[in-house]
Amino acid sequence: MRCCVVVIACALSSLCVDARKIRGISLSYKRFYRERKSFLCIDGSKMIPFEQVNDDYCDCEDGSDEPGTAACPNGRFYCINLGFHPQYIPSSRVNDGICDCCDASDEYNSHTRCLNTCSEGRMEREIDRRIGAASAVMQTLHGSVVVKRELSRKVKLLIYQSIYIPALTYGHELWVMTERTRLRVQAAEMSFLRRVAGLSLRDRVRSSVIREELGVDPLLLRVERSQMRWLGHLVRMPPGRLPGHVPLVGDPGEDPGHAGETMNLGQRERAAVEDQMRALDEGLRLRQQLIEEGVLLWMEKQGQLRELQQVAEDLQVKLEEHRGRRRRGEYAEPGGPRAPPPPPPPGAQDDAGNGPYTLHDFQICQIAVLHSLQSVL
């Protein structure tokens, strides 16, 4: 039993060593690195034991015995870049602390943690397919819908929203919006809208003017809002959900040293989004507080306004009574005997307590009340 365990362990270790030794070669060169007793340099200059392949010591003049290390100055390391374009890099860049391969396979034995960015290449091809599909839709609808004069702009814009935009932006939640991608999406958008507006590039009309004339929001704004909404869904997901995890590196079979390494999707992005959401919440709370304070101030001013209006109405009534008494002759004309004035109402004394207010006093009070009303309003 123990012998079987030892044999299996030796076989697994040999497989791991073999997988480590053939790192950095392409599929077309794997026939030169088959397991055998000796290894012939690709230029045919020397025969060495196979154990010396990828042992971090340069034996062959062409550097073919060290495709996965930085031992040979003229060696080449093959980046598989699964999902993107494969490429060769100088072997001196292997494990130098700088991520040269998009699948991070060149930093398999360094302290640098490289992210797999090969998906950006897949994203470029996906965007190419989306733009091609949208162009096919526009070519199909060009004669029957887009430039047909019998159809109104409203109908054309409905077709633009219901057919063209879904064909162009399918799966846009996962797009990597580089500057080149933005320009291409905007060009695909405006190629349809210019035809709807009856314009061309020769007319030299800005895209913003065309959108404003047609009443259409920018497509890039819609894409960004949708991406932020999708990212919000990912942020709110529990940590154990599968969509919230992405691999750090590429194919684990090509790089066993990084097999099984995963990180929570956008840990830094998630923290940044959470900070933005906290800032937005704080801003909303401040705005709500300002609104509540404004409502309280408005209610206070409304109370003051009602009080001033009541004072103005009382003064107007007293002024009318005073004028009526003057017309009825209750007060004597100047130079003649003066009739005794009526008893003043309660509180209708002047500052010195010397009798009722005169007409001039009522007019001054009315002007003061009007100024107070203007200040409140």
UniProtKB/TrEMBL annotation:
The organism of origin for this protein: Merluccius polli
Gene transcribed to yield this protein: PRKCSH_0
Classification via Gene3D superfamilies: Low-density Lipoprotein Receptor
Comp. bias (Pro residues): 337-347
A Pfam family of this chain: PRKCSH-like
One GO BP annotation of this record: liver development
GO CC annotations on file: glucosidase II complex
Highest rank taxon of the organism: Eukaryota
Record's keyword annotation contains Isomerase: no
Protein known as: Glucosidase 2 subunit beta
InterPro entries assigned to the protein according to its UniProt record, in alphabetical order: Gtb1-like (IPR039794), LDL_receptor-like_sf (IPR036055), PRKCSH_N (IPR028146)
Occurrences of domain Glucosidase II beta subunit N-terminal (ranges): 18-126
Keywords: Disulfide bond, Signal
Region listing for Disordered, in residue ranges: 319-357
Signal peptide as annotated in the record: 1-19
